[in-house]
TrEMBL record:
GO terms for molecular function: methyltransferase activity. It comes from the Bacteria. It comes from Mesorhizobium muleiense. Residues 35-116 form the C-methyltransferase domain. This is C-methyltransferase C-terminal domain-containing protein. InterPro entries: MeTrfase_14. Keywords: Methyltransferase, Transferase. GO terms for biological process: methylation.
Length: 126
């Protein structure tokens, strides 16, 4: 263990900071969704981050879909919320106003895919 982290006071401070940061992030996403229709918002990424996001964020369970390029995830539903998992093509014709991207490395790829599907949503990284 690193000498600086072995002090209980240091660990307590780190835990408190994590707790506050977590609550602040959940509140930020709650406020974000409060200004949008969650049913016109999708989460791109149906892995553990995406599933946790729709379970934890207030109104997250009302999002219309989780999007994943993995065909083995498509046609399934997120545990706890029942949010449908669709492939990118499943967005065609849907009223998607916001895409929340779970992995920042895929932001540009998601933007390109949305454009190719004829969508012009806000794209934001979680």
């Amino acid at each position: 263990m690193t000498a600086g982290l072995s002090r209980p006071g240091k660990i307590d401070a780190l835990v408190r900071r994590f707790d506050q940061t977590y609550r602040d992030k959940v509140a930020w996403w709650r406020d974000y969704l409060a200004t949008r229709d969650p049913e016109q918002t999708v989460v791109w990424g149906a892995g553990s981050k995406g599933i946790t996001f729709v379970k934890v964020v207030p109104e997250g369970a009302r999002m219309s879909a989780l999007v994943d390029v993995n065909p083995h995830k498509q046609g399934r539903f997120a545990p706890g919320t029942g949010t449908a998992v669709v492939g990118p093509e499943g967005l065609r014709g849907r009223p998607v106003r916001s895409i929340i991207v779970m992995n920042p490395l895929y932001r540009d790829e998601v933007a390109q895919a949305a454009h190719e599907l004829g969508l012009a949503p806000d794209i934001i990284v979680a």
